[in-house]
Write a structure and sequence with these properties.
alpha/beta; six-stranded mixed sheet; five-stranded parallel sheet; 20 helices; globular
């Protein structure tokens, strides 16, 4: 999901033209048909069917990467056995079909087990990031009426604070060192699972039944819970396969073979190994990495640590990673740390085996695109989507050429258009809203669509214009059919790959006694795309603490900035705190009292342009 047009992204008018839609792309769309069964369960296709194969004890599902130590390997048989034990344990705790179960976990084997266990019993998995503070956890747990939480030891303290106002939350199952976990959780992972049977009868869920509840940031107010059905995984697969250059399969065999997940369990020739630093608590990590990799019976590498260029390259080297999803910010960091040496590319230096790189979260510019091609040996496939309708647009260099800076085109099975306010398709070169139709080009329902926003029918209806679901992202289409990102039509933005909703941060800032009002906007940043910036109006009782002395005022602002940043970090998530705060007398408002963030956003963009021009040396 790009966040802002990259400075080196060519506009449609100057983009290289191919003479029309690539023939391979046109054929793929024309011949593709959906096959959505009445009954479908994510856990069954991602784990159970592989655990039933003769090689289940040898087929690796999760490889836990440990820097400086031996890795741990877990088979599909082990994944199913542990998931069965956990499903039985959850039943004993009173979890029933349709209940929401929070999963506050990092990339690790236990997280994969948790998802499989919750999904196979017909409950709804609710991923929550370890970065969330008590306020962020409290709102999501309270709004969803979650009955149980499976949490890493690092989340237990914040979960304890949040739990005080979440009456529906009956049980917290802690994962970690037993003695430390039991001090704050109701029960401990290993001991609990050991008490239950490794046999469980999978619940027969319909394809339309809810599977996952993911809270996504909105423009105003609190985050909205997007309810994702089991069938959404099917809707993800064309984009996943295409963006991963067919994920080790033959791109010229019938697409239906790949989407059915046919991979011989014995002597399987597919050697794909997947890794991404994307958190499995987000749509990108869960729906674009973990679940589709398991769907195809391939191993995924789990790394429970901070991203770093050296760590990433060493991980991909040791684990022989062939396919990956890397945010542009991660690629930029790798480009700076390892630009390549004369006579030796980064691919050669680390003996990389990459066959595909998918990138999303913000625009991939020319510089990053060139780095991937020249140093990593793979042209990146940019992808665009959102939690509600994921994996809908992108590239596939294995079948048709990507244009550096372009979002790509609609993936097979998705009827994607750029539409105006009335729902009509915009002409070539005219910006409009990226939208997806409920039906594909053959008139069949597209399985990618979410069921709606949790307890918010009005917001669900506002997402649609007829059969078109609007993304809220603006783009224009060139003569070849490629889309070029233009910006958000609302105030949600991306910072360093994280989706930021200003409302939640503004609400948190206003809770501080020194803040009368606040507005949050993106500030353009060459490395991260954008950073969070807050405009703050100081409360009257605190204004008296300032003096007319410029130096004293500067010291006061510096001290207050540090307090407000710590305030947001402590209550929300580290990536949400404002990296910069500007103090103003009043926020720009409409006559109806709404903050005009657009004015502030345009002001930041103008300042960034002025700064860039000031740094540009004059031509000789």
């Amino acid at each position: 999901m790009p966040v802002s047009p990259a400075a080196d992204t060519p506009p449609s008018a100057t983009a290289p033209l191919l003479g029309g839609v690539p023939p391979a792309y046109e054929k793929l769309h024309r011949t593709f048909r959906w096959a959505v069964p009445e009954f479908f369960n994510m856990a069954e296709v991602c784990c159970t069917r592989w655990a039933c194969q003769p090689d289940a004890t040898k087929r690796i599902a999760v490889r836990s990467y440990l820097s400086g130590a031996d890795d741990h390997f877990y088979s599909y048989a082990q994944l199913q056995e542990q998931a069965n034990r956990l499903s039985n344990a959850l039943l004993a705790q009173g979890v029933v079909r349709g209940d929401r179960v929070a999963i506050v976990m990092p990339q690790c084997f236990e997280t994969a087990v948790a998802y499989m266990a919750v999904l196979q019993m017909g409950a709804i998995a609710m991923p929550l990031s370890l970065l969330f503070g008590p306020d962020a956890l409290e709102f999501r747990l309270q709004d969803s009426d979650a009955v149980l939480a499976i949490a890493d030891a690092r989340a237990l303290d914040d979960l304890r604070l949040a739990r005080k106002r979440c009456p529906a939350l009956r049980t917290v199952l802690g994962v970690g060192v037993p003695d430390a976990v039991l001090a704050e959780a109701d029960c401990e992972w290993s001991d609990t699972l050991a008490q239950f049977s490794d046999r469980f009868a999978l619940v027969a869920t319909r394809a339309d039944d809810p599977a996952v509840l993911i809270y996504t940031s909105g423009t105003t107010g609190n985050p909205k819970g997007a309810l994702i059905p089991h069938r959404a995984l099917i809707g993800n697969l064309p984009g996943f396969v295409a963006s991963q250059n067919w994920f080790g399969f033959d791109p010229y065999s019938p697409p239906s073979e790949h989407l059915a997940g046919i991979a011989q369990s014995a002597g399987d020739q597919n050697t794909a190994v997947f890794w991404s630093p994307a958190d499995w608590a987000w749509t990108g990590g869960l729906m674009d990495a973990l679940l589709p990799t398991l769907y195809f019976g391939r191993p995924i590498v789990a790394y429970n640590g901070r991203f770093g260029p050296q760590t990433a390259l060493e991980l991909m080297q040791r684990c022989a990673v062939t396919h990956t999803f890397l945010y542009p910010t991660a690629l930029k960091a790798m480009m700076k740390a390892y630009p390549g040496a004369p006579g030796q590319t980064v691919r050669q230096q680390f003996d990389l085996r990459l066959q595909a790189i998918m990138s999303a979260g913000e625009a991939v510019g020319d510089a990053v695109f060139a780095y991937c091609v020249q140093q990593l040996g793979v042209a990146p496939n940019e992808m665009f989507g959102q939690t509600e309708i994921n994996y809908i647009v992108g590239n596939c260099n294995a079948l048709y050429p990507a244009k550096p800076g372009s979002m790509g085109m609609g993936y097979p099975g998705h009827q994607v258009r750029v539409i105006d306010d009335a729902g009509h398709e915009c002409p070539v070169g005219v910006p409009g809203d990226v939208a997806v139709n409920r039906f594909d080009v053959h008139g069949d329902p597209d399985p990618i669509f979410f069921l709606g926003y949790w307890k918010n029918e009005a917001a669900t209806q506002a997402k649609y214009t007829g059969d078109w679901c609007r993304t809220g992202d603006q783009a224009l289409r060139d003569a070849d059919g490629y889309l070029w990102y233009q910006g958000r039509s609302d105030d949600v933005f991306k910072a360093a790959g994280y989706r930021i909703g200003p409302g939640e941060i503004e609400n948190c800032l206003v809770k501080h006694p020194a803040v009368a009002n606040a507005a949050v906007v993106p500030k353009p940043d060459p490395e991260r795309g954008a950073v969070v910036k807050a405009y703050v109006v100081i409360a009257p009782e605190f204004i008296a603490k300032q003096t007319a002395n410029t130096g004293a005022e500067a010291d006061f602002h510096a001290e207050l900035t540090a307090q407000l940043q710590a305030h947001v970090k402590g209550l929300l998530a580290p990536y949400e705190y404002p990296k910069e705060i500007e103090y103003i007398d009043a926020l720009p408002m409409t006559t109806t009292g709404k903050v005009q963030r657009r004015i502030l956003r345009l002001q930041e963009e103008a300042r960034a342009q002025d700064a860039a021009q000031a740094c540009t040396p004059p031509r000789a």
